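Extended Data, panel c. Modelled sequence:
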Amino acid sequence: MKRGITDLRVAALQTALNWEDAEANIKHIQHHISLQEGEVDLIVLPEMWSSGFSMRPEHVAMVWDDAWIDQTDRWPEPLKAMRRWSQEKNAAIVGSISCRIKSDDRFVNRCFFVSPTQDLEWYDKRHLFGFAGEDKVYTAGKTSTSIAWRGWTLHLQVCYDLRFPVFSRNTAANPYDVVIYVANWPAARVHAWQALLQARAIENQCYAIGVNRVGADGNGIEHNGLSQVIHPKGHALALAPSNESTWLNTTLSANELLDFRSKFPVLEDGDSFEIKQRR
């Protein structure tokens, strides 16, 4: 990020999800999009927003081929919806979807970034939630993804990734500005959600956006939201109420981040490291 970059206007949607029903979720989120007022630069949806956190990808996964990246007419309906919302609001949109990769017939929990100009990038969730059997049905991602958007660098992460700081570690040589966690984080462990979001913002000297769902899923697991945006110094800039479907809106200051990093350059004292790829 350079001086002179405009602030980033963020709108995060904390909402309940219809279990394993992409059509209903597209209609549901379309309704919320129509209620979102004001100009924004970035919209963030929860993890697996089109289905809920389903371990039945054979029933809910959208079929995707990486060769379709520039062929928007072939995009599956959930991605077409993200593209439509992005263009409607002139904002990039981020959210994860259960996918079946056509080329090798594997399933991934893929976090997509869609821009109004049809740019499409993605990150495959690296840390799969073994406690729920996610590692038995989905394939873990191997690479991290940072994306340049309107002068900012965004780093994509998904839910359980929040517990593993090494893979999201920021660097002074090539820093990102915002880390985004899309999630279906259960209410039973929400204290960890809050503490770890603060930790990721502080240790990486960046803004942290955590977007969680509300309501019970198809397995009866309760989610109470508490979506939030954390300042690099660790305090909450915005916090969604518990158990409510709502938009969480805030503006991230470029100058505050640059001034903080300049006056207190902790990233420069970080350890050098190399992440080895999983086999």
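The helical segments are 22-35, 57-60, 77-89, 134-137, 190-204, 254-263. This feature is highlighted in the accompanying rendering.
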